[in-house]
Design brief:
Blueprint (H helix, E strand, L loop, with lengths): L1 H10 L12 H23 L9 E2 L2 H9 L3 E7 L2 E6 L2 E6 L6 H7 L8 E5 L2 H38 L7 E3 L15 H15 L1 H6 L7 E5 L6 H12 L3 E5 L10 H15 L3 E6 L18 H14 L7 E7 L7 H4 L6 E4 L5 H11 L11 H7 L5 H17 L7 H13 L2 E2 L5 H20 L6 E5 L2 E2 L5 E4 L9 H11 L1 H10 L7 H16 L26 H28 L1 H14 L1 E3 H8 L11
Parallel strand pairs: 1-4, 2-5, 7-10, 7-11, 8-9, 9-10
Antiparallel strand pairs: 2-3, 3-4, 6-8, 12-14, 13-15, 13-16
Helix pairs in contact: 2-5, 6-8, 9-10, 12-13, 12-14, 14-15, 16-17, 16-18, 16-21, 17-19, 17-20, 18-20, 19-20
Length: 621
């Protein structure tokens, strides 16, 4: 009974309708396949008189003889073809056109009383097939030319649409983003609040004689929220928001970029008050005259049109252009002068307060454990941008879901932060010798950092492979506005502490220190050529930052002196690391053995092994 009820219940369910979307190219393919099969059908119908099977053909006189002898049981007549059944065999024969079969047998004195005669008449079908076979070529020819003309018309429309703007419009009905959804950039929000107030209340500014702010240029590293802040500005003002990337203006045809600029500004003027946002404007706003294609470069033509459109605004137009870039140094001076981009809004990496606010925003909609301390997480994530923090919380949620947890806890966030910074864990097969080398390498970093007074406390040491590294030593970074020469030299010593430990314990150098050496060399080079922290004095010697078309200012002799200073700084850092490890070799052995045993040593375990870090004594002036 239950089974029948279940069956009836299933039968009462409404059938699910599956909608299948067929692409236009697939539609054309299906049409062509249908026409091909239809033509094959006609061909088969017209030529149906030709048998596919191998049937023996005999003369008509033999058929007459077989009928006379009573061997034939059935004769089938189709036009001039005779199919004769003789016992189990089937034969075929042909008669002359216009002759009557009955008359042939009558003249031969043979009776057909005992033989079944079947006459098939396909005159009507043949007539229709002849008509269709005559009309079908005409229909196919008409369809072919229709398809060609249609494709040509579509191509013509595409040509004329090259100059149309492809900007995405976020209207008032689009889900709004407000300043409450943006954190960590309080100064930038304050600057843009006046832009919002102008778009809402332009009258009070006009009464004071203030002109329209024509452009706002937002500069800052990637992931700091430039695009999000632009959308929040449009959401706060409640005006249409036209968004377009700088690369979308460029096209293979000359003049298309300028045409798209004209179309974009024309469309925005019809919807004013409005905001135009151009992301990555450095793609088209680079300094003119530095290219290899002369003044008629497509990029320069597009830039010229933007300059004209922005400088051609009338005072009563409520249209604000916002742009974002992380390369303000390459922009053309005419583009960033007052009157075009009047304001420059700088966005930097968020501080500890900003990171805490960003984490609070991105934590919405995610279940977190009650022991999660956002202040500690914010302190732990020094150097993370807003995009990095959002990615970190997303990775933590994925990890918690993978482990079937009901809430995201501190361990998930810690693992996600390490994954975002260094990459996921990798289970590599390592020999005992490799593990021992990695343990002493990471212990060397940690011991030197622990001894250096200006370095940050150790956060975690691990010999678990992540990304391209076989291990890592992470510190608990603190906020530093200025970097001193002493701190930079100590950083170089810590970076080279791994190589110093390898050489001290194994009397051998390994390739595991290659990344450390590269970073130490880069810090030393920056100290010499940018910061003036060497015997060469306070002079900028950085040739790498100069464009290729500008003359190099460093002579070969000076370049040699720069190399000497870099080597001197790195050698001093390496000697300092060797001296620290020689003094604390017993602690180096203890920490390395702990790493081999547990693979990961956190801050608390590190303090128990070596004791607290020495407090930095700052002399009073």
């Amino acid at each position: 009974m239950a089974a029948n009820g279940k069956k009836n219940h299933k039968n009462n369910k409404k059938p699910r309708i599956i909608k299948v979307k067929i692409n236009a190219s697939w539609k054309n393919a299906l049409i062509y396949a249908f026409l091909f099969l239809f033509a094959m059908f006609l061909f088969m119908g017209v030529n149906s008189q030709q048998p596919f099977e191998d049937v023996k053909t005999v003369p008509l006189s033999q058929v007459v003889t077989d009928v006379k002898l009573g061997k034939v049981s059935e004769i089938t007549i189709l036009d001039n073809k005779l199919t004769v059944k003789v016992g189990k065999d089937t034969l075929q024969s042909f008669k002359e056109t216009g002759t009557n079969v009955y008359q042939i047998f009558k003249d031969a004195g043979v009776q057909l009383d005992k033989t079944k005669v079947v006459i098939k008449d396909q005159t009507g079908l043949n007539n229709w097939l002849n008509i269709i076979s005559s009309i079908l070529p005409i229909i196919l020819m008409v369809a072919f030319f229709y398809f060609i003309f249609r494709q040509a018309r579509g191509a013509q429309e595409n040509i004329f649409s090259f100059g149309k703007s492809s900007a995405k419009l976020f209207s008032k009905d689009t889900p709004r983003i407000s300043f409450a959804d943006v954190a960590g950039v309080d100064e930038a929000k304050q600057e843009l609040t006046e832009v919002v107030d102008f778009l809402k209340n332009p009258g009070k500014y006009k009464a004071m004689g203030a002109r329209t702010p024509k452009g706002v240029l937002m500069i800052g590293p990637s992931g700091t929220g430039k695009t999000l802040l632009a959308r929040a500005t449009a959401g706060e003002a409640g005006v249409p928001f036209f968004s377009m990337a700088g690369s979308e203006f460029m096209e293979m045809l000359v003049g298309v970029g300028a045409s798209r600029v004209r179309d974009l500004f024309s469309t925005a003027k019809k919807s004013q008050p409005a905001i135009i946002f151009i992301d990555e404007i450095d793609a088209i706003g680079r300094q003119r005259g530095s290219g290899l294609m002369g003044g008629h470069d497509e990029r320069e033509q597009t830039l010229n049109q933007i300059l004209v459109e922005m400088d051609g605004f009338t005072p009563n137009e409520q249209l604000v252009v916002m742009a974002a870039t992380n390369r303000p140094d390459v922009l053309d001076p005419a583009l960033i002068r007052p009157g075009r981009f009047d304001r420059r809004v700088a966005l930097d990496m968020p501080d500890v307060v900003g990171r805490e606010a960003i984490l609070t925003i991105h934590a919405r909609g995610k279940p977190f454990a009650s022991n999660v301390d956002w202040k500690k997480v914010a302190k732990r994530t020094v150097g993370f941008s807003g995009a990095d923090l959002e990615n970190m919380l997303n990775e933590a949620a994925i990890l918690a879901a993978r482990l079937a947890k009901k809430a995201i806890d501190t361990k998930d966030i810690e693992e996600a932060a390490t994954k975002v910074k260094l990459g996921p864990e990798k289970k590599r097969l390592q020999s005992e010798e490799d593990r021992r080398m990695t343990a002493y390498h990471e212990a060397g970093h940690a011991i030197v950092s622990w001894e250096m007074p200006h370095m940050d406390p150790i956060h975690r040491i691990s010999i678990v492979s992540r990304g391209m590294s076989l291990g890592h030593t992470m510190m608990e970074p603190t906020e530093h506005i200025h970097e001193t020469k002493t701190r930079l030299v100590e950083q170089i010593a810590v970076m080279l502490g791994g190589r110093a430990a390898e050489n001290m314990i194994f009397k051998e150098m390994t390739t595991g220190a290659s990344d450390d050496i590269a970073k130490a060399t880069q810090v030393a080079r920056t100290m010499v050529v940018e910061y003036g922290m060497s015997e060469l004095g306070p002079i900028n010697l950085d040739n790498d930052q100069r464009p290729f078309y500008e003359q190099k200012t460093v002579s070969p002799v000076m370049a040699s002196r720069i190399d000497d200073q870099i080597k001197k700084i790195t050698d001093a850092g390496y000697k300092s690391a060797v001296a620290v490890l020689a003094k604390l070799k017993d602690k180096l052995d203890i920490l390395a053995e702990e790493l081999l045993k547990k693979e990961t040593v956190d801050a608390d375990s590190f303090v128990k092994l070596l004791g607290p870090k020495k407090a930095l004594v700052i002399a009073k002036a």
